[in-house]
Design brief:
Blueprint lengths: L1 E4 L9 H10 L4 E7 L11 H9 L4 E7 L7 H7 L3 E4 L7 H10 L3 E6 L17 E5 L15 H14 L2 E5 L4 H10 L3 E4 L11 H11 L3
Parallel strand pairs: 1-8, 2-3, 3-4, 4-5, 5-6, 6-7, 7-8
Length: about 220
């Protein structure tokens, strides 16, 4: 099972220390959110932040690009050291070219499915990517309200998982109770944010161990 803390929610006063602490606590991946104020009405991690995290961890890093025209920035973030690059297909006029650019840079491509996006509408991409990030909230802010109609999309994606050899990660409002349910459905991992990790009682290690225990590990 993949547990990927969202560095957007970490303490930016010392990002290097936070990176070390999350890795030592048992996280097995790190999630990096970048926003441009256009695709979503918010700004998140900068290029320097992304470089810092990648430079100071041995874990797999996944970049979630909430930006317009992501094709313009693929090489820049690949050079920063990220391993997986997620993008929103509706953020670029040529999504297939984005996937090709990610592959060209030797990184794994992934698509993001927003709550209002149907699984069927992205059918042409499943055979071309390795990873799918399913949003349980509207993207752009930590702590957004969970949208329960997303549940039916999980089942639809699980049916496609083996056919296309997809890795399916949930992002947004990943509480322990929801993660326990989604594990049983076949989800591969979770982005840990304010719903389960940051701002909760205990050290990162204690909290992640508790999450793993509740999810059956």
């Amino acid at each position: 099972m993949i547990y990927s803390p969202s560095l957007m929610c970490a303490n930016f006063d010392n990002l290097k220390a936070e990176t070390f602490a999350l890795e030592a606590a048992g996280a097995n991946r790190l999630h990096l959110d970048v926003m441009d104020g256009r695709y979503v009405p918010n700004f998140a991690m900068g290029l320097g932040d992304v470089k810092s995290v990648c430079r100071n961890t041995s874990l797999v890093t996944e970049l979630h690009m909430m930006i317009m025209e992501p094709s313009r920035y693929i090489k820049m973030y690949a050079d920063a050291g990220v391993d997986i690059i997620y993008f929103h297909p509706d953020s670029d006029s040529h999504p297939l070219q984005v996937i090709k650019k990610i592959r060209k840079e030797g990184r794994k491509p992934g698509i993001v499915i927003n709550p209002e996006t149907t699984i069927e509408s992205l059918a042409e991409y499943y055979d071309l990517v390795d990873n799918v990030l399913l949003m349980g909230v509207k993207p752009g802010y930590a702590g957004h309200i969970y949208l329960p109609y997303v549940e039916e999309k999980i089942g639809q994606l699980i049916e496609l998982k083996d056919k296309y050899n997809l890795e399916i990660i949930m992002d947004g409002a990943c509480t322990v109770e929801r993660m326990k349910r989604w594990v049983k459905q076949g989800v591969d991992g979770f982005v840990l944010g304010t719903s389960s990790l940051f701002g909760h009682l205990g050290t990162y290690k204690e909290i992640i161990n508790r999450i793993k225990h509740e999810c059956g590990e």
